[in-house]
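Example 4.3 (complexes with small molecules)
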Amino acid sequence: MQKYFSIIVSTFLLTFIFSAFSWGAVPLTALAVKSSSTGSHSFGPAPQVLKEVYSDRILWEGEKKRITLAGQENTSGEGIGAPEGMILIPAGDYISGLDPNVGYEECKKYAKSCEKEWYLHEGPEHEVWVDAFYMDKYEVTQIEFEKVIRKNPSKHKGDNLPVERVLWNESQEYCEKVGKRLPTEAEWEKAAKGGRDTLYPWGNEVVSGMANFCDVNCKAYFKAEQFDDGFKGTAPVGSYPPNGYGLHDMAGNVWEWVSDWFDKNYYKNAPRKNPKGPPKGMKKGLRGGSWGNNASAMRSSTRSWAHNNRVSRRGFRCALDAPS
Ligand SMILES: [Ca+2]
Ligand SMILES: [Ca+2]
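Answer. The structure with calcium ion bound is encoded below.
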């Protein structure tokens, strides 16, 4: 009797062990299939494998975010050796500038009074080569600026709002102190275009929710009432979708100082390779438009300039040479 009892117990134990092993093996196989097809991760067992698959999926989703709105693949190298908070802008040609007639017509779409003269310095369109460089993903914020320069000149206060009312030389000082530099005007424009050749970083028409400009919330007489971007003044950096390179707020929020002196005729004779602006001048370049500008100023080719003084529409971001 005892013998029969031992056989029954042993058989039961063997069946149990075999069943447990099989049950454990199935989800591992299923995980492999699932992770390569749908990315589903609704499995109970094998927590270590599940964690790896899950984190791979998160990374993959992060990569997908750097696909442009038009479905073009972003070729920038965020996370591939780029310093934290910066994105690698690949070397290559782009079309700089814009036919002034196009800028003038765009202005008339969104504002009541426009003059063609305002756009003459954007022409002619010309091909420019820019070596690879890194660009800050966001405009420099007030908390970042204050930590380095020990003051906050901004009118609209908030840690994650872009620093504004910042002087050109303060911008340069900040970038140097964090081991970077201001971008050239050509680097800035290439970065703003995000690998595309559209009027605005996201396409050829202004739409709500892509940039912070003088919309229905704005006080100015030239506000574009048909759009609502959610902000009267500045917006926290990164409030809008990134462009094709993964950069935020290249259009709008605050104008961004560039390293070049401004020359309205510069594009007529600019060097084709890595232009750095004229050797001297009276005013520095500003790019991208701001919360206080008309919708058509969000175009990537929009140029502006100013003396070294404080205005609440002006901020900046930094760039950095990439290893050649
Ligand atoms: Ca706005
Ligand atoms: Ca900006």
